[in-house]
Amino acid sequence: MVVTIHDVARRARVSIATASRVLNGAETVRPDLARRVLAAITALDYRPNRVARRLRASTSQLWALIVPDFENVFFTRLSRGLEDVARLHDRCVFLGSSDDEFQKERRYLELALAERVGGLVIAPAEDDTDLSELIDAGVPVVVVDRPLVYNELVDTVISDNIAGGRLAAEHLQSRGYRKVACIAGPPNPTSSDRLRGFVRYVETSAPGMEVSAVIHGDNRFDGGYDAMGRLLMTAHQIDAIFVTNNLMTFGALKALAIAGVRVPSDLGVIGFDVVEFFQASGIAITSVNQDSRLMGRLAGERILSQRRPQSSRGQLLSLTPQLVVGESTPSRNVETTRAACQDGERTNADDVA
Amino acid sequence: MVVTIHDVARRARVSIATASRVLNGAETVRPDLARRVLAAITALDYRPNRVARRLRASTSQLWALIVPDFENVFFTRLSRGLEDVARLHDRCVFLGSSDDEFQKERRYLELALAERVGGLVIAPAEDDTDLSELIDAGVPVVVVDRPLVYNELVDTVISDNIAGGRLAAEHLQSRGYRKVACIAGPPNPTSSDRLRGFVRYVETSAPGMEVSAVIHGDNRFDGGYDAMGRLLMTAHQIDAIFVTNNLMTFGALKALAIAGVRVPSDLGVIGFDVVEFFQASGIAITSVNQDSRLMGRLAGERILSQRRPQSSRGQLLSLTPQLVVGESTPSRNVETTRAACQDGERTNADDVA
DNA sequence: CTGTTAGCGCGTTCAC
DNA sequence: GTGAACGCGCTAACAG
Predict the structure, then answer these.
(1) What is the pLDDT of residue A226?
(2) Residue A315, exposed/middle/buried by CB under 10 A (0-12, 13-18, 19+)?
(3) Covered bases, chain D (protein CB within 7 Å)
(4) Do B93 and A95 touch (CB under 8 A)?
(5) Residue A25 — pLDDT band, cuts 50, 70, 90?
(6) HEC sequence for chain A
(7) Is residue B70 within 8 angstroms of chain A, CB to CB?
(8) Phi and psi (nearest 5°) for A171?
């Protein structure tokens, strides 16, 4: 029924060993025999059975990718990046969504083990997720998005979230905003770093600027919506807001729209990971963005390089996020021309360095 | 190093055959032996090698999912649905993005074959994609989103896109819109059906209503943007527009915003698959939506049921899309209260049945 | 340079 | 009811 290396060998009138050698590109085969084998391969339309191959040579061509939620565009792009390098090297990637649930994550880790995967990329649900079994089994492991507490034996690819927060603060400063607030995520390293980078810059390097309020949300749409609502109750003086996550940014915008606060004339807004196709309705939102596809690619390349005998593990790759300027943070400086034709609620800008 | 069924058997002082029987739930094992085997399994923390198992019993626990673009939320949700049922049945799913390119799709199909997958779910790049190799190899195949021309040997799970188009037309009619336009996608079955359902309803069942213009785009943001631009040049009389795809809906909205056309006061808008987290900035867009997660689940269940000896293939599952009413299509009828406070460009509603 | 042979880990006939 | 032995398809030793 299905054609095996045996059939190829017989048709080429060689042994299966020779056929195997040709398949694996060994140089030590007589050219005419090699040609016969290749002819048989195309004639029979033979494709090697990767399952058998994997069983034999424990090095697997199947990778696993475990993330909290593939519906989040950050992770889908990351997966595309990983897929890019996997395809180039003839690997395939199987997917697991953990929904940030310990149980599901565990389940997929066991599956990965049972499948004898040749590599694992994971955005761990907890910062102490136990990866030791995979690591002990010699599987290359790369942690993305969120660093692990114990990370000597894995490679890590993350964003410099502190720099991301600072970038947002710098931008708001340069555009002349003074009283700013922040809607941050839950107290995990990723969110905390973004907040910390933001606040630290304002406090140390932005004279005359001030973080009037910080509110925490759940990184989801509703969390941003609620946080913005609370913010509107308390701090009326702010002229700009930094939201540390894409979905919360939209929640906040929704709340602002309902409250009748206009962006950017009444309030400047800067978000995080607000990718282009979110920018469709309404004005383009200024945002600090991660290149998640690149992160996926780098993760894949780390997997590949870990295979090499005792290459250095424990490597940390930290990418710097990029500022993408939209229409939600126009300049508030008096020098600029654009500021003139906005509505009347604007105040004059303070002196800027 | 890694524990095999051999180790289990030795520790339980039985043969590997007995150990295997226990693992596979055979009834014909003496209880005390079975208990010893189970004890050994937990003691050694044994996990069966799925690779070896797959090689032996050709029935595979690995599925493949091939879609054009995993970044499209429609497909990510579909994949979550498939994953839901895969996890429940201890399968895993590997992913391939074809980018609608014939070559990439072909490549992933070969990979699926070489991996001896136990099932394939595919949104084919072409309507005549050749799946015969997989089918001949006995792999259950389910086609989603876009039907195949030759579909006797596969199951198909799609949306009733004609009904989706009709739904949009009915809604616009019931809200009192009269002169409507449509931005449709490229001339593939999915897009054509949505357009056809829309136009047909207007022409046959909506007296006084008229499709003033139809423009085709590329299903991407820019396509919607350009199409809306052209539409604004030509047809000034329309009071609502139907866009047959989510990304184009946003492109159109962007063009409208730039042109100073306000939604919904100047123009009603209804889209397709505009999911909730797109609804964040600006007003909520009325939309005809598919339940893509459900489609993924159904696809997975078809895979499972195809395994059963000579179950009926060629089955077609057609889901009806749902209307989600937002704020972009308020009623234009004089009877309603809301119509009163809109700006002056409105005309009085015609008589409605 | 080539062919024969031994497993990789598991499920499954066969005898017992 | 149980165990020994074979083979799934392939690669990597080893002889020749």
Answers:
(1) 95
(2) middle
(3) 1-5, 7-13
(4) yes
(5) confident
(6) CCCCHHHHHHHHCCCHHHHHHHHCCCCCCCHHHHHHHHHHHHHHCCCCCHHHHHHHCCCCCEEEEEECCCCCHHHHHHHHHHHHHHHHCCCEEEEEECCCCHHHHHHHHHHHHHCCCCEEEECCCCCCCCCHHHHHCCCCEEEECCCCCCCCCCEEEEECHHHHHHHHHHHHHHCCCCEEEEEECCCCHHHHHHHHHHHHHHHHHCCCCEEEEEEECCCCHHHHHHHHHHHHHHCCCCCEEEECCHHHHHHHHHHHHHHCCCCCCCCEEEEECCCHHHHCCCCCCEEEECCHHHHHHHHHHHHHHHHCCCCCCCCEEEECCEEECCCCCCCCCCCCCHHHHCCCCCCCCCCCC
(7) yes
(8) -60, -45
d(CA B65, CA B51): 19
Q: pTM of the prediction?
A: 0.85
Q: Tokens 């992770």 appear where? A: A75
Element (H, E) at B223: helix B221-234
- Residues lower than pLDDT 70 in chain B: 1, 235-236, 277-282, 309-311, 333-353
Mean pLDDT of A194-213: 96
The owner of tokens 């909290």 is: A68
Strand C nucleotides below 7 A of a protein CB? Answer: 1-5, 7-13
Any CB–CB contact under 8 A between A106 and chain B?
A: no
Q: How far apart (Å, rounded) are the C-alpha atoms in residues A142 and A127?
A: 14
Interchain contact B85–A (C-beta under 8 A): no
Report, as an integer, the average pLDDT of A103-112. 93
Are the beta carbons of B122 and B141 closer than 8 angstroms?
yes
How would DSSP label each residue in B44-99? HT----HHHHHHHS---SEEEEEES-TTSHHHHHHHHHHHHHHHHTT-EEEEEE-T
**Chain A residues in contact with B88 (beta carbon < 8 A):** none
Query: Which among A87, A250, A282 is the nearest to B277, CB-wise?
Result: A250
Quote the Cα angle for A16-A19-A22, to 5°: 155
CB proximity A44–strand D (7 Å threshold) = no
A260 touches chain B (CB under 8 A): no
Q: How would residue A325 be classed by pLDDT, with cut points 50, 70 and 90?
A: very high
Report in angstroms the alpha-carbon separations of A269 from A54, A266, B232. Answer: 52, 10, 30
Nearest CA in chain B to A4: B114
Give me the phi and psi of A309, to 5 degrees please.
Answer: -50, 120
Q: How much is the average pLDDT of A285-314?
A: 89
Q: Taking CB atoms and an 8 Å cut-off, how many pairs form between chains A and B?
A: 150
CA proximity to B124, closest of B141, B107, B100: B100
Residue B257: how many other CB atoms lie within 10 Å = 16
With beta carbons less than 8 A apart as the criterion, state whether B270 and B329 touch.
yes
Q: Is B297 on the interface with A (CB under 8 A)?
A: no
Tell me which protein residue sits closest to nucleotide C8, measuring alpha carbon to C1'. Answer: A56
Instruction: Return phi, psi of residue B184, to 5°.
Output: -105, 170
